[in-house]
Amino acid sequence: MRTLKLLIPVLLIFTSVSFANVNKCEKDILISFYEATNGSNWNQTWDLNESVNNWFGVTVENSHVVEINLSFNNLSGTIPSEIVNLPNLRVLNLHMNSIKGLIPQNIGDFTTLEKLNLSFNQINGEIPTTISEIESLKSIVLFMNQLEGTIPANIGNLNNLEELILFNNNITGFLPNSIGNLKNLKVLHLSSNNIEGVLPLEISNLSQLELLSVFDNKMIGQIPTEIGNLNKLTELSLANNSFDGDIPSEIAQLNNLVTLMLNNNNFDTNIIDEAIVNIPTLVDFKFISSPKVKATMSINSAIVSD
């Protein structure tokens, strides 16, 4: 019994240590990342002689790295391709740094990644098509970079995706029809790019969508009447494009809408249904200077401006 009592604390210490330290392979990957992003110049740097679980921004669970959160930390350089070999990584957050270069082409080798945030850096090149192979992804946040090319055509493979936030880049091409497969998507924010073409009808399949913003692009065509099916929308921002035709009265069905931005388009008429401007939740409404409506309207708290 005495031997057993002595053994228990030893086992507890051993268990604690074994769960706190990652294996050499994962540590080497982190060191490669540290060197590629000029770790010695970070605001909060790593002491490579310490245990990994003491490194700033690194979360370790069951001896595996599960999160890297180094936002606002003065990272520069590039993202090394080795990073995808962390087998249990769920979160990679490098927001607001000075990282340049490309998103690794092998990013699709991540198998557990749920949140990818590389926003507010200087990353260029295209979004790798392999990103659509990360079935676990729930959030892609890449805004305020210098990304070019198109949204991957197979983006609709990401069945768990809840956020796709790409605003303020140089993205071109059309919205892929497969985007309508993202049944769990809540935020689609693509503003201030160079996206062309029409708003695909398939977008009406996104029943969980709360924010749809394609503000400041080069989109054309009519707004699909089926947009009225997106009854969870709180923001619909279509301004600064070349949409034409009539403004569908079905927008009035969006009874959770707080923000509606339609200004600076090529609509065939400046007539708008009274029911739209009288959506009870509507606070911020932008259309044209003096919109006409089909009947006398009360604008409530809506803002009507250029």
Rounded to an integer in angstroms, the radius of gyration calculated over CA atoms is: 24 Å
Which CATH first-tier class of the domain at 22-137 would you pick? Alpha Beta
The helicity comes to 10-25%
- Morphology: elongated
Low-confidence stretches: 3-19, 295-306
How many strands, what sense, and barrel or not for the largest sheet? 11 strands, mixed
Report the structural category.
alpha/beta
**CATH fold name of the domain at 22-137:** Leucine-rich repeat, LRR (right-handed beta-alpha superhelix)
The CATH level-2 architecture of the domain at 22-137 is identified as Alpha-Beta Horseshoe
Termini separation (Å)? 83 Å
Mean pLDDT: 90
- Main sheet strand line-up: 1-2-3-4-6-8-9-11-13-15-17
CATH superfamily of the domain at 22-137: Ribonuclease Inhibitor
Please work out how many helical segments DSSP would assign. 3
**In percent, how much strand structure appears in the residues?**
15-25%
Care to describe what's here?
The chain has 306 residues and is α/β, with parallel strands linked by helices. The protein has a domain at 22-137: Ribonuclease Inhibitor (Leucine-rich repeat, LRR (right-handed beta-alpha superhelix)), CATH 3.80.10. Helix content is 12%, strand content 19%. It has 3 helices and 18 strands. The strands form 4 sheets. An 11-stranded mixed sheet has the order 1-2-3-4-6-8-9-11-13-15-17, with no helix packed on it. A 3-stranded parallel sheet has the order 10-12-14, with no helix packed on it. It has a two-stranded parallel ribbon with strand order 5-7. Strand 1 (58-61) and strand 2 (64-69) form a beta hairpin. The longest helix has 19 residues, at 2-20. It is elongated, with a radius of gyration of 24 Å. The termini are far apart. Residues 3-19 and 295-306 have low confidence and may be disordered.
